[in-house]
Amino acid sequence: MRVLLVDDSKVMRNVEKGILAKLGLTDVEEAGNGAEALTKVESYQPELILLDWNMPVMDGLTFLTTIRGQGNKTPVIMVTTEAEKTRVLDAIKAGVNNYCIKPFTPETLSKCIEKTVGLVKAA
Amino acid sequence: MDARFINTFLESARTLFSTMLSAPVTFGKPHVHDRLTKYDVSGIIGLSGDVVGSVVLCLPKASALEIVSRFAGSPLEFGGSDFADAIGELVNMIAGGAKAKFEGKNVNISCPSVVVASVHQVQTPSAAACICIPCGSPLGDFAINLAIQSQGSALASHALAAAGAH
């Protein structure tokens, strides 16, 4: 499965990459902001996207709204500190598939990924 | 400063340490920061919206190295780009986790800025008092400095200042 990690923190991307590797997901591309991620969506055709919210250049919600507006249905997990109900609702309205609040334990993110991937396989 | 604000930062820092650093954290008594204490590393996040001001994660070099290396899962070079990246992400999680619990407040956080310089000070221009929360952990001591206030209070302070009332 091709996974795109979108986060402006390289260290956080590495943490997430380690968790993905333990799940056997090693085909991973990275982007540091939403604009960069839009390019990667075109060239890499990810099957799962882990998406931060607060990033420079283009934030995660704008990225999500943009790809959904283009008809892209790739499953997206928002991995963010934005935990208020209103923000979660905004993300759901924009078309997010799952939500993982930072900070997280490896187990929490793993379960979130497995649940999302499982949903994808079942769909 | 509303004491409830301080409690949300205590809770947020505790959650960060228990989840991503696998270490406990303890807190000293929050007190008004004398603005003279110097640190080697500061991660700074601005708040805007219904609550305004700044949140600063302040660390001596030794604590910063231990904490970011635990977070990254491998040793990081002091002052390098990954080091600054990690400090920024840590303060982002502390500020983000805390502001999520500001009940009924619509608050935005800035992207973090990181200062790495031997024995520096961070001045906070906000009219709000700067509160220092001393923190201890097996990875080293550090502090969270808060200079934040509700927007209504900030507007009142600015109006008083403009009127020469203080």
Key descriptive features of the protein:
heterodimer, A: five-stranded parallel sheet, 50% helix, globular, B: 166 residues, alpha+beta, Chemotaxis protein chec, eight-stranded antiparallel sheet, 4 helices
CATH structural architecture of chain A: 3-Layer(aba) Sandwich
Strand content of chain B: 25-35%
What is the number of helices of chain B?
4
Uncertain stretches of chain B = none
Give the strand order, joined by hyphens, for the main sheet of chain A.
Answer: 2-1-3-4-5
Topology (elements, then pairings):
The complex is a heterodimer of chains A (123) and B (166).
Chain A: E1 3-6, H1 10-22, E2 28-31, H2 34-44, E3 48-51, H3 60-69, E4 76-80, H4 85-94, E5 98-101, H5 106-122
Parallel strand pairs in A: 1-2, 1-3, 3-4, 4-5
Chain B: H1 3-20, E1 26-27, E2 31-32, E3 39-49, E4 51-59, H2 61-72, H3 81-99, E5 107-109, E6 113-120, E7 131-136, E8 142-150, H4 151-162
Antiparallel strand pairs in B: 1-7, 2-7, 3-4, 3-5, 3-6, 4-8, 7-8
Helix pairs in contact in B: 1-3, 2-3
Give a written overview of the molecule.
The complex is a heterodimer of chains A (123) and B (166). Chain A is 50% helix and 17% strand. By secondary structure, chain A is of the alpha/beta class. Chain A has a single domain (3-116), classed as Response regulator (Rossmann fold). Chain A has a five-stranded parallel sheet with strand order 2-1-3-4-5, sandwiched between helices. In chain A, α4 (85-94) links the parallel β4 (76-80) and β5. Chain A starts with a strand and ends with a helix. The mean pLDDT of chain A is 95. Chain B has one domain (3-162): Chemotaxis protein chec, CATH 3.40.1550.10. In chain B, 37% of the residues lie in helices and 30% in strands. In chain B, strands 1, 2, 3, 4, 5, 6, 7 and 8 form an eight-stranded antiparallel sheet that branches. In chain B, α1 packs across α3 (81-99) and α2 (61-72) crosses α3. The mean pLDDT of chain B is 87. Classes of the chains: A alpha/beta (123), B alpha+beta (166). Chain A binds chain B through residues 8-12, 14-15, 18, 54-56, 80-84, 86, 101-105, 108, and chain B through 15-16, 19-20, 68, 71-73, 76, 81-82, 85-86, 88-89, 92-93, 95-97, 99-100, 106, 109, 111.
